[in-house]
Design a protein that fits this description.
Layout (H helix, E strand, L loop, with lengths): L2 H9 L11 E6 L4 E2 L1 E2 L2 E4 L3 H11 L7 E5 L1 H5 L9 E3 L1 H12 L8
Parallel strand pairs: 4-6
Antiparallel strand pairs: 1-2, 1-5, 3-4
């Protein structure tokens, strides 16, 4: 096995805290995008708050899906919003707390 691949796996192994939810986002499969606040992906505090808005906006439950958002999703710019995210208050606090933790990322 290539030693670089082994090193890559060790560096990028996710920890349990990095897989914790920062918040939740509403995905619209028919449109192929996430729910936006102007040009920023909306990140809700809880699954229930995302579900409440989704049920208010869309009459058909199959029209949307709600996904967990982790720190890795935000770093990878999961919604294609060029790094712009609109957080609810508790989600913003979780994000700020996660950013303060030590994360080692290697550019490739």
């Amino acid at each position: 096995m290539n030693p670089r691949f082994i090193m890559f796996k060790k560096i990028f192994r996710k920890t349990k805290t990095e897989d914790e939810a920062i918040g939740y986002s509403i995905y619209l499969p028919d449109e192929g995008c996430y729910e936006y606040n102007e040009d920023e992906c909306l990140i809700f505090d809880t699954f229930e708050s995302a579900k409440e808005l989704a049920n208010t906006l869309y009459s058909c439950p199959s029209y949307h899906r709600i996904y967990k958002v982790t720190i890795h999703n935000i770093i990878d710019d999961y919604g294609g919003s060029c790094g712009g995210f609109a957080f609810e208050t508790a989600a913003m606090k979780k994000f700020a707390d996660s950013a303060e933790k030590r994360h080692n990322y290697m550019h490739y």
